[in-house]
Every structure is written in structure tokens, then in C-alpha cells.
What does this fold into?
Amino acid sequence: MLVRALALLAAATLAAACGGASTPAPASSATAQALSGKVTVFAASSLTESFKAIGAAFQKANPGVTVEYNFAASSALATQIDQGAPADVFASADTANMDKITAKSLADGQPAPFARNAPVIVVPADNRAKIEAPRDLAKPGVKIVLAAADVPIGNYARQVIDRLAADPAYGAAFKDATMRNVVSNEANVRAVLTKVELGEADAGIVYRTDAAVSGTKVRTVALPEAANVIAVYPIAILKATKQPEVARAFVAFVRSAEGQQMLRTTGFDPAP
Amino acid sequence: MAGRRSLESLFAAPALLFAAFVVVPLAALAVRGWQDGEVLARLTSPFVLQALRLSVLTSTLSLLLSLALGVPAAYLLARVRFPGRRFVALLVELPMVLPPTVAGVALLVAFGRRGVIGSLLSDAGVELAFTTAAVVLAQLFVAGPFLVRSLQAGFEAVDQTYEDVARTLGVSDFRTFWRVTLPLAAPALASGAVLCWTRALSELGATLIFAGNFEGRTQTMPVAIIAAFESSAGLSGAIALSLVLLGVALALLLAVHLVQVRRWSAR
It folds into this structure.
């Protein structure tokens, strides 16, 4: 009896599966309902909140689709993709790491910029080291945490320090003293943020959007206009994707008015 | 007999599969290192040498600290019957089964600037986080228990009649320990020390969280592998560092086995 029931169940499942397969998907129709499958998105750590929200909205609009994320430093993601990690979409926090992917012809088409961000100085809420201006980063004994130089925010942070040093009011001595105060090169922007939140570091450089995520745990110190660096985020579909349609739809969604609006609410500026 | 042979042939396939699973990645690492000229060039780069020097320094310091604190601890756990002894022994073993990242967070909460002990130290002008001392503490936390555990078992296995004889001959307690107990537990001490040192050498999770990553100061070999992997040095840098650590591990393992073989053949 049980055997027969199981056999029937198996037959029914098989029939359903065959039936499903024999019905051709509407060819290249733009209807979102036709989309199904899983898309794996490798995204910069700073995109954690905004991309999770975008993914949820994208899944809601396409019930057959699942979005999975791997959030890490763009530099780490680029190495992983280069080593054949199964990613469909790569969203980098800088062009340098995206260029590593395009240089190896791993991207499908040209990467598209989809958001902008800006580095800021953050200090713990109680600011015991009394860092009120960028100049204070060079004070002796201040513990600064940056991201490693190849991590986008680590690179941007060094650009900020270079730009400040280019101002005669700061000078090269400012850069030397500031870099001497760096006690750790962290793996990604969120590691920098955590160490500032904990008060283990007196100051760090993260994105404006990360400072917003931290809320009242950190304070930001304004940068002079001339020291501002604009971080441009590019997104690309990877050639190795087995879900080109879903990947394309996801990228389109990120760049759509709805996706851009969600990025804006988390503090990103629209694409250039 | 026939039954056993069929069992053996049944087990051969999974056993071989497992052996291949362990050997193939390590061999791939070596082959890739051999083929990739960049890897060879990086083997002697300041980046690698600096990390190696720091690793050897910190793991040796943490071994010495483990010996200084762990030998007395192991002896007391093995010899003295005090209330809660089993519980203490369990606590000592805890770091061995704990993910090192948990150790890192715990150390940060205790010894970080705003930590329970760290805030007191900070008031006294001592700050541990992001220093080489933090690396040593992280290693001591995760690796020390290996020494204590091994040595405790070693002390427990020492026949106490030898100690009693020494004492009845008027030898002091300390001298008895030094001349009788410790030499008899020497094999356990040696294997515990090797385990402790290699575990300290491979420490990553707690170090990254508690000590951070800074070349020459807190960037040990395992930390440097992560840093290289995520940098433009990319995979070849990571492979170069991995090969050095693989070589050290292999040499140590061979040394331990040689010592053991000699001991057995001496019996």
C-alpha cells in the first residue's frame, strides 16, 4: 500500500516536472513573472544594508527568484571571482577592483556605475582622543584604524590623507604623523567601523553610509571640501553566470528608479 | 579471515579518497608555487620575511609563557584534589574547542581599552590592543591549553611511588618535581609544547580581532596570508606564505616522528 502510494507520488512529481519543462518559457519577453532562479551577488561590504533591501524588493517583484549575497571587501571579492567563485553579479566600491575583473575579461559587457559615496572620518561617540578636525589625526598617540590599501575604502582613505597633505596648511608632516598613528589595516570597511565603535581605535575612515549605519555609536568629523574623494560604485554581470537573465534583471533593478531610491535612503548618491 | 579481508577491501576506497583529499590540495599548492615564478620571487620578499620573523617571535614567546604558567597549572590539576578540579580542568580545555574568533572577541572585551581589565590597564598607560603583546596573548589563550592538557595527562601517568621514594630519601618537594616528576613526564611535555607552538603559529581568528593587522607589528604569517589574498599581491602572495608555513609544519612533524621512532626503537 505504502509502496504504491510512493510510486504514485513519484510518478506525479515526474509528470509535473516534465510538464513544467515541456512548457517553453516565453522567449525574451520582458514580463518579470517569467523570471526564476537564483542569483548570487558579490557586493562590497558597504552595500550590506542597501543591497539586502534591494534584494528583498527584487524578490518580491519576482517571486520565482532568490538573491544570495557575499559581502566582503571588493578586493577580496575580485580575487574570489578571479579564482572562479560562482558569482553572477559583482558590485564593487571602486573602479580599481572592477578593472581587475574586466582586465581578465570576466565581465559581460561594460560595468555600469550605479551609486556614489564619500569617505568620512569617524570617531567613537565619547571621542576621548578629542579629534575635532582632520588635523587632530596627526596628534601623537592617536590610534587610527584604516582598511588595507587594496580595499577600496583603504585606498580612498589614503587619497583623503594625501589631499589634506597637499594643502600647505597641513603639509607632508601631517601625512607622516597620521600614517605613523595607523595601528591596523583592517580587511574591510565594517571591521574599521567596529573598532571605532568599540573605542579600540580613536579614529577611522569609513564611508558616509557606514557612519549612518552606526547611528549614535560614532561621530563624524567633517572633511574640508578640497579633501573630498568621490567613491564611484560600478556593477557588472559576470561572464560565468548561469543565470544571465536573472542577473541582468537584478542589475537593471539596482539601476531602476526604485533601486536608486533605496540606495538614496541609505545615504548613497545617485550614479554619476 | 575472509570476512576481514572483505572489510578491508570495502574500507580501501573511502580511505584512499580521504588520503587523496588531504594530499591533493597541498600538492596543488606546491605545484602552483613551483610553476608561478611570482611565488618564488615573493618567498624572500620583505613582506614574507617580516611576517615569518614576527610569527616565530610571537609563537616562541607564547610557548614560553605557556610553559611558565602551564607547567604549574598542569601539575596542580594532576596532583591536587581540590573542590571543582574537574570544572577547572574543563574550563582550561574550553579554548581548545572554542572558535578562535570567539577568543578574539572575548579578549577584546576583557583586555581592550574599554574592557573589564583593559580599562584599568589603559588608566595605567598600558594599551594592549593592536600591539605585538596582543598577538602573544591571543596565541597564549588558544594554544596554552594544548600544553596544559597534554602535560596534565603526562603528570597523571607518572607513578607516584618514584616521588615518594625521592621524598623519603630527604629530597625536597621542589627538587623531586624537577629531578623526578618532570623528566618522567618529558614526552608529554615535548608533545604538548610542539602542539602549543604549532597552534600558536597558526593562530589567526583571535589575532585579527584582538591585535589587528599591521606589518611587522601584528601581521603574523596567517594574518599576512589573508592580507595578501585580499590585496593586489593576490593569490601568488598567499601561496608563497602558505608554502612557508607548510614547510615549517612539515619539518616539525618530521622531527616529532623521528624523535618518536627513536624512542620506540630504544625500547
